[in-house]
Amino acid sequence: MTEKIKTVMLIDDEEIDQRNYKRILNRSGCVENIISFNYADEALIFLKENPGQNIDVIFLDINMPRMNGFEFIEEATQELGADFARMVVVMLTTSINPSDRQRAQANPVVRAFLEKPMVMDHIGFVAGLLNDVDAGNYTPTS
User: Fold this and answer.
1) Mean of all residue pLDDT scores within the chain
2) Integer Cα distance of 134 and 137 in angstroms
């Protein structure tokens, strides 16, 4: 993989999934830093308290306690505005509910909706999305 991702944020309440994601991200060789949170509300606090922290990609679970992935996106967009929307947000989930996919695709902040488990191909795909966003070539599609 030639595309580099400087910083990835993982937001998922499943510890086993987090460990697997970190292993895959590290093995990909294209991710420099990984910041992880078990709860979306804690990730939101981190983003608000660290406005200078550049996050390139957020892998976001949908179904989590306290604040789900969609609530996180709504809150982050309201509180962080365009700075948040420039990040590549990827919903990574086990949800088979078609309305979750439709809701994600209808949200311009969400760049992709991928099914768990994370695999190496997901990293290359997301790195390509990041390059498109950086180059100004990204156009949201549903």
Assistant:
1) 90
2) 8
Tell me the pTM.
Answer: 0.91
Nearest partner of 31 among 123, 109, 98, 117, judged by Cα: 123
Is 73 within 8 Å of 41 (Cβ atoms)? no
CB 142 within 8 A of CB 106: yes
**Of the candidates 64, 36, 119, 123, the residue with the CA atom closest to the CA atom of residue 88:** 123
Are 85 and 47 contacting, i.e. CB atoms less than 8 angstroms apart? Answer: no
Query: CA 120, 125, 90 angle in degrees (round to 5)?
Result: 95
What DSSP character marks residue 94?
A: -
Give the three-state DSSP class for 5: strand
**Amino acid at site 59:** F
**Cβ–Cβ < 8 Å for 45, 75:** no
CB 100 within 8 A of CB 93: yes
Rounded CA gap, 125 and 73, in Å? 21
| 82-91 residue pLDDT tens | 667 677 899 9
**Interacting residues of 75 by C-beta distance below 8 A, sequence separation 6+:** 44, 67
